[in-house]
What does this fold into?
Amino acid sequence: MDVLLSKVAGIDVHMDKLAVTMIIGDFDKEIKVEQFECLTFTEDLRRCAKQLLDNGIKHVAMESTGIYWKPIYNVFHAIGIIVTLGNATHMKNVPGRKTDMKDSEWIARLHRNGLIRPSYIPEEEFCELRQLTRHRSALVSDIGRIKNRVQKILEDGNIKLGVVLSDVFGVSGYAVVRAIADGVTDAEKLSQLVTTNIKRKEDIKAALTNCLKERHCFLISELVLQYMYLSELLNRVNGRIDKKMQGYSKEIEKLTEVPGISKTTAENIIAEATTKMEVFADDRKFAAWAGVASGNNETGGKKKRAKTRKGNPALKKILIQAATGAVKKKNSYYRAKYNTLTFRLGSKNKAKVAIANRLARAVYHIIKHPSIRYKDLGEVRVDTVEQQIKRSITKLKNLGVKVDYYQHKKFVDAKRDVLVTL
It folds into this structure.
């Protein structure tokens, strides 16, 4: 096997310590192996980096273990050491021989022979954007949990506000919640705060007739304070993200033209995927990296279905959420393709992942090529009358209904003037 690097180091990463193996030796000479351990405090990492440089080692490889690799990368990268971050699944040693030092030696030997595929580490700017957008998502989740807890307490006090209002934390709903937090429990007074147009006005008072106790008002007041505090934090984070995203306004504008992608979703996509599309060979590789492409499972010349790979979990979640919105747009390509895939695959979840794959590939081209903009192909392209008839006939046959094939063929010929083969 060809040796590509004469001086390398492999690191087995843990929370509190590192196992380091240095391999030094020219290609045609006997190699020298040295091993040592060090702690993960910043000063210890700097001493470790100095020891590596003193031995002439500038190439280091390690596994992407949780977030524990980041402090090491921060210190080593600043000093000038070239860090190769590898997927732990691709670097496993032989079972039954696992120790920390043997793992680090195995990593070093793999790196010496160029057998570790480096993971993509974005630039500092995008690392900051990732942290900000992920923090925003966490805040949104926290606010959602607060809303659910308020709803449970209202139900416990016989308040059926969710029955008459679509959003309990809308203008009218939030006014009622604030009033309850202030100790107001009279249904007549509470119903006057509802200004939303409702068909049956009498339902408002019925929904607000309650059995609230002092404890309910106290708990709701506490939750309202949490809601206000988290909402303020969310606004501050949104303001910081807006400042950081000013240089990507054109990309965000083009991405929001795609069904299912809002301004927030576009910002999340840029933070996770970055705008450096040249690091990916093509759109399919990008979709695989995002975790919305199926793996390969071929044996004996036969290709079998394979699960999607892990990829980037955050980006995968974003794309599937966008796909969920895209399939709801009427007369769109994604909606028609989703219906076709749901019928063929027999699973809505699998169909959504397939739509997320197409969204990922569209995002790749939109970001990479400044002149490309999204253009919806329309539902006729994938959901023609003939295909609708095929699906309907299949459903009827599965239900035991006999279908006259020639009548349907004649109908399609008259409408479309085409030959249909069912």
